[in-house]
Write a structure and sequence with these properties.
Number of helices: 6
Order of helices and strands: EEHEEHHEEHEEHH
Distance between the termini: 22 Å
Oligomer: single chain
Structural class: alpha+beta
Helix content: 25-40%
Strand content: 15-25%
Length: 156
């Protein structure tokens, strides 16, 4: 299991290639040869980059869903729409598929940000807007999500 750390400003070229920052590439080095899966986010106008091991674990959970229930089949179809396997090339570049570049509205300025075990890929303006929109309510959100709710987790 890998836990990514950091937020990085990058640039995308006209073909949708993003050069990974050295710090992020170093974090990925143990898993680079396994490949990645890229998909659109469920909740935000961004993309999610899953290391293959994380993706496979998620797919094990999805396989347990009864596909003879319409809501499950619809969810799986929507969740899987546009999913692609990708690799980081020898020079440290990630090629974002054109359809996903359009979905995330990625232009030139890109933000790669850790989301624990995946990396979110944002258009910089969209990322800054989402951060600004949630800044006011972040304290209340933190209390609701991370406050003592009887979980066994030990978060300070």
């Amino acid at each position: 299991m890998i836990n990514f750390i950091g937020t990085y400003d990058c640039k995308a070229d006209s073909k949708g290639r993003v050069m990974l920052p050295v710090a992020l590439k170093n974090q990925m080095s143990p898993i680079l040869n396994q490949g990645f899966v890229i998909k659109r986010s469920v909740f935000q106008p961004c993309l999610e980059l899953y290391p293959m091991e994380e993706w496979n674990q998620l797919m094990q959970k999805m396989k347990k869903k009864n596909r003879f229930k319409a809501k499950n089949a619809n969810f799986i179809r929507s969740f899987s729409a546009g999913v692609k396997t990708v690799e980081i090339d020898a020079t440290g570049r990630l090629l974002i598929p054109k359809n996903l570049v359009e979905i995330a509205n990625i232009d030139k300025e890109v933000v790669l940000t850790s989301a624990i075990n995946i990396v979110e890929i944002w258009d910089k303006d969209s990322y800054e807007k989402v951060l600004a929109d949630t800044a006011e309510d972040f304290a209340a959100l933190a209390e609701e999500v991370m406050g003592d709710d009887g979980d066994d987790g030990d978060v300070s």
